[in-house]
Amino acid sequence: MRRSPRETADSARRITRRGLILGGLQLGFAGVLALRMRHMQVDQADEFRLLAEENRINIRLIPPARGRIFDREGRVIAENEQTYRITLTREDAGDVTTVIRRLGQLVELDEDDLNRALAEMERTAPFFPVTIADRVRWEDISRVAVNAPALPGVTPEVGLSRTYPSRELYAHVAGYVGPVSERDLKRYEDPPPVLRIPRFQIGKVGVEAKYEEQLRGNAGAKRVEVNAVGRVMRELDRREGEAGADLQLTVDTALQEYVQARLGQESASVVVMDVNRGDLLAIASAPSYDPNKFVRGISVADYGELRDNDHRPLASKTVQDAYPPGSTFKMVTALAALDAGLMTPEDTVWCPGYLEVGGRKFHCWKRVGHGHMTLEQSLRESCDVYFYEMALKVGIERIADMARRLGMGESHDIPMSAVTSGLIPDKDWKRRNRGAEWVIGDSVNASIGQGFVLSSPLQLAVMTARIATGKAVTPRLVKSIDGVETVHLEGADLGINPNHLRQIRRGMFAVSNHRHGTAYRSRIAAAEMRMAGKTGTSQVRNITAAERARGVTSNDDLPWERRDHALFVDFAPAEAPQIAVAVVVEHGGGGSTAAAPIARDVTLQALYKGDPPLEAYPSADRRRIKAQQERLARERAERRAQGSDSA
């Protein structure tokens, strides 16, 4: 069918219009492309020139600043210092051996650190940087930066490292940090990326480990542009990390410093506790060690010296070790008997020097005996036979129940490593753990804190605080987190008859203030500061018949490691208790001679918040105490000076 001329003209007009529209679109698109090309070729020429040289953008984590740790007065316990290190990324380095050889010509590399870094490089992904040299000088950093083109994959970095200005003072409390290990990573199902940062430090023991999540903070990030040989060309953007939380502990550095100096070279521990709030004012183990050595990588020789020391400086004796509490446990036995109504304070027990039970003689420490003893007298003179008799009447179940009410046999919730629960045995415990039935001799031994009974110095301090107040005081070590006070529950009433507690306190007061008391020689002369205490001696090992035949009759005749442990607990002032103190001197011999003098000095130092006046001591001791105060003041000043020099 032929179209008419009119139809042909209309069709031509439509085709021309479409052509114009399509042509216009094509021209517009071509214009946009031209503008884009101009922008890329002119405006972004430098950027694309770098990309054309095989540059790429890396995202690198920025380690956060670790939260600091302070004492109750705001004195620094743990802080961060700026350090310089050199890292190497295997993926960017290419020939690692050649790069390290060149680096060694510029910077002195420690062979042990280098071998450790190479081993770490094999274990980690090729794109993770590994620290080759840590804590290098600024001059070394400068040389590496100047020679960067010849050192592909090598990066000089500025970072923060943990430091402990008080050195050994808080080693067992704050603990220390160290580089993240494979063992640390295995604790996480999905390890946080921040732990992959070279030589990133993580808490290993103590508060540093227990509060790792709060102290660590959150990592930041930066985008950097690197060229084909791994050299950083520029930093594109940066997001700073979030610093970790600051912790404030309950401990008092001045008191802790005195305690550590007073213990000297003894293998010993001291706990000082606020009886009303439970705050740990001092918690010290001796001897101690410098945690800075672990942060920086302790040498084999230094670690071996600590490990092989028979005084065990690495152990946190205050919470980790458990000892037979000896006669400091007698208050528990007495309270159990009073609570059960099986005795009164006026009842007397005849002590001939021993008690025969089941054909076996259980001796009193005083072989000739004490004669007739009341409760107060038995505590004052530490008569064993009195408490043997109480054990026969009361039984181990009531004794164990009272011990637990007083905070023994419990792992107290404080952020220190390996906090022991000690051991308060009963019939069921022996059946489960020893496969044997409880016998009456076990109760007799337990009544004076021997046999299976074990407790830590912290537990002894808690026990003493609860006797002093009648409340379930719980220990607290962290005072605040980022300025926010930690929750502290008021101790509930123990449910012990107040009259019974008064009788026990009276006996403890006589221990330190009656002429026949076992700690009378270590009494406090200032009436308003007098303490109530209890001595204890825990037997480590019996003297054998062969040794007796050779004339070995006392602790002084035995090697140090076989001598008895010395213990002392007290609260003060006796009329209005503020603090409780527990002292354990390993292999010290007797509690009255080795532990009580230390406890008396520490108690006065805590009450007076500094060196007490000489009038607080008995007149016969004042000359010796004055010389001791001067010596300890010099030692503390020297220690502070050494800490400043090392910092």
Describe the structure in your own words.
The strands form 6 sheets. Strands 2, 3, 4, 5, 10, 17 and 18 form a 7-stranded mixed beta sheet that branches. It contains 23 helices and 21 strands. β17 and β18 form a beta hairpin. The protein is elongated, with a radius of gyration of 36 Å. α10 (253-263) packs across α23 (622-646). 39% of the residues lie in helices and 19% in strands.
Give a brief rundown of this model:
The chain is of the alpha+beta class. It is built from 23 helices and 21 strands.
Tell me the number of strands: 21
Tell me what portion of residues adopts beta-strand conformation.
Answer: 15-25%
- What is the molecular shape? elongated
Structural class: alpha+beta
Average residue-wise pLDDT: 88
Instruction: State the distance separating the first and last CA atoms.
Output: 106 Å
Low-confidence stretches: none
Q: Tell me roughly what share of residues is in helical segments.
A: 25-40%
What does the radius of gyration come to? 36 Å
